[in-house]
Amino acid sequence: MPKERDPALSAANVFYMLLVVFIHVSAECVSGYIVGSVPFYPAAAAHRTATVAVQGFIFLAGLKFALSAGRDGFSLPRYYLSRLKRIVLPYLVAFAAFYACYALVGRIEPSVSGAVREFFTGGLTAHFYFVAVIVQFTLLAPLWILVGRRASVSLTLFVSLFLTLIFMDHMPEFISLATSGKYWFTYNSRLFTSYLFYWIAGMTAGRNPEGFGRFLDDRRRAITVLWICGAAVDIALYVAIRLGIYYPIWADDFHLFVSVLAVLTVLSHARKHRDAPLFRTPVFEAADRASYLVYLWHPTVILLLDGVMNRTGTVSLTLRFLVRFLLTAPLSVGLCVLWQKFSARIRKGAA
Description:
The chain has about 350 residues and is an all-alpha fold. It has helices at about 5-30, 40-50, 55-70, 75-105, 110-120, 130-140, 140-150, 155-180, 195-205, 210-220, 220-245, 250-270, 280-290, 290-310, 315-350. About 75% of the residues lie in helices and about 0% in strands.
């Protein structure tokens, strides 16, 4: 029997999954619309607002880890085995499929060293970096257990925020200095240090779920208003950069704070509606359980849709977006749910 899931966490998980799909569905519009044109502004605003999905996933992962590690009978070997089955093996299959396709179409030159490098760095295709980051957090589980048991909550949050801001902006510079300028690190977005605060904040919430829930319930309106205001500024900064009229060096730092507010807002409203019938339906629960597979495989649906539109001469960016928007999520979720059901039947028959 699958373990029972918190409807609020499941709702947030599915929401972030759909945000990731939207980010990739709308990417062509954001890069293809003429900067400053009428359709550019809503596309840029929606895309920028959605770029809190990975941060939300990492927060949820930290929260769930703290909940698991805090239960009696928690076993580190069993935890690693479960992560190997649920994260690494599906990623290995997806990586092999993408690598083979890219090699066939001439996008990459196949090589053992290149395949190994791309596998471990998550650099083969744009969305795989999240897997590299979450595996790093997983491997450091003993450290997080120690932090959860020994460290002060407020001090841990402060230090993790400080380290995240520093490493997010300056890790390549530190490595260049350490190597006397011989090496410039290009994988900073794939290091856990760039997302440390989200994980630690999630762990903090998971260590006291009742208190965190009360905080979200009591401060829902204030959190939401702060997020709306912060998101408006964040969008304005992004548009200003794209228009070439202002290049704030603190834009990424500000986006971190907006992302935290977005995570809190989503969880707060998910808790408010956690008893909604939708969150108890088999379809929704299946989508929740398939969310990681959807994350891994949804770009293939986009590629297939783009291929059809290319062959039919569909060049309108808006029309192409609408086709992707209407079909990518349903097809991705439906196919992944069907695959999970099929593979479960195969395992059951083999048992």
